Each structure stands twice: as C-alpha cells, then as structure tokens.
Amino acid sequence: MTPDRPLVIGHRGASGYRPEHTSAAYELAFAQGADAVEPDLVLSGDGVLVLRHENEISGTTDVADRREFADRRRTATVDGQEVTGWFTEDFAWAELRTLRARERRPGSARPTPRSTTASACCPSPT
C-alpha cells in the first residue's frame, strides 16, 4: 500500500465471486489485489472463533440438508428479532467443519456465475 493508492479491503473476502467467509473467497480477494479482508466472527459451542457473518448458518451452509443435525433447529432472538434456524453456538467446531459453504443469495442479481458455481465449495475457516 502506498499513499497514492487507496486501501482495498475485501469484505468477507471476494464475496461477489465466492461464498463469503470461505478460504476460496479470502484467497481470491488477495489475488484480486485486496490489501486485507474484513472478517466477522461468531463462537462455536466449544469456544472456537468461526468466520461467519452471523451465528445463524442455514443461509450460508448446507446444514439444513444434513439429517444428523435436524434436531438442532430452533428459534432464538438475534438482534431483537426471532430467527429460526441452526446456530453456531449449538455445534462443536469439529461439526461445523463438516458443513459446506453455499452462496447466500443464489437468485439475486449480485451472484455471478463464478460465485454460484463455487457454491458448496468448502468449510468455513477459523
């Protein structure tokens, strides 16, 4: 970074090209010239910091497709709103690592063919 160049920060990695908060998104952000990435952190049930935007993970992982975790679905209050889904604090890190990341909004105008084809690409790093 030099004074004549702005600081470039990849928000959640290169989330317009890869599912957010994945190794693939972070690596691509740096390959595209980001100086840094801005992560969000939540806790697993066993106290491991997990790189996710929020603790409810059904929108960004395949947890809803995993029968072994069906009993973990619940309703909780998040930022004053009732939210039903699966929450990182109800899982050990070893369980969260088995989940596959997916594109948050596959039907929106934001995802590109690159981001939707990368869906279900990888677990969330710590």
Query: From the coordinates shown, what is the CATH architecture?
Result: Alpha-Beta Barrel
Distance from first to last alpha carbon: 26 Å
Order of helices and strands: EHEEEEEHH
The beta-strand count equals 6
What proportion of the residues is helical, as a percent range? 10-25%
Q: How confident overall, as mean pLDDT? A: 82
List segments where confidence is low: pLDDT < 50 over at least 5 consecutive residues. Answer: 115-120
Which key terms come to mind for this protein?
single chain, 126 residues, alpha+beta, TIM Barrel, two-stranded parallel sheet, two-stranded antiparallel ribbon, glycerophosphodiester phosphodiesterase, EC 3.1.4.46, PLC-like_Pdiesterase_TIM-brl, glycerol metabolism
Describe this structure in words.
This is glycerophosphodiester phosphodiesterase. Residues 101-126 are annotated as: Disordered. By secondary structure, the protein is an alpha+beta fold. The chain has one domain (9-103, 111-117): Alpha-Beta Barrel (TIM Barrel), CATH 3.20.20. The protein is 14% helix and 17% strand. Strands 1-2 form a two-stranded parallel ribbon. The longest helix is centred in the N-terminal third of the chain and has 9 residues, at 23-31.
